[in-house]
Design a protein that fits this description.
This protein is mainly α and 130 residues long. It is 95% helix and 0% strand. The N terminus is likely disordered. Keywords: Membrane, Transmembrane, Transmembrane helix.
């Protein structure tokens, strides 16, 4: 009678060993494949026994990330628009300075032309008399 009980115990022990090996491989696979945060969420899912709490937390986290991303995008956009307005004002000031210089140079050129004409007239008059 001892012999049949040994035969039955060995397969049960062997089956338990197989289950232990498979469970260990599953745990090892979770550690290697899943990042730490995913592993925590998997562990939480196993502990809570459902996905409702996890989905609500994930949804809230996604909303927070979306809100933060949206705010950061608005801040960056505002900074870029401010920089563009600053560049436009600087360019406008430079153009105003250049145009004022051109106007003053135009006046100087006109005065030089008048003086040149006066000198030519004077030379022509003095050349004719001689």
């Amino acid at each position: 009678m001892e012999r049949p009980s040994l035969e039955f115990n060995l397969p049960d022990t062997h089956e338990e060993g197989k289950l232990y090996v498979v469970d260990s491989l599953n745990n090892l696979n979770k550690l290697n494949v899943c990042p730490a945060e995913s592993q925590r969420s998997l562990d939480e899912e196993e502990n809570t026994g459902g996905t409702g709490e996890r989905m609500a937390g994930s949804n809230t986290r996604n909303q927070c990330l979306f809100f933060i991303t949206f705010i950061l995008t608005l801040i960056v956009s505002l900074a870029l628009v401010s920089f563009v307005i600053f560049l436009i004002l600087q360019t406008r000031n430079e153009v105003d300075q250049i145009s004022s210089r051109l106007l003053s140079e135009k006046k100087n050129i006109e005065e030089l032309k008048k003086m040149n004409n006066i000198i030519l007239k004077h030379l022509n008059q003095s050349g004719i008399k001689e």
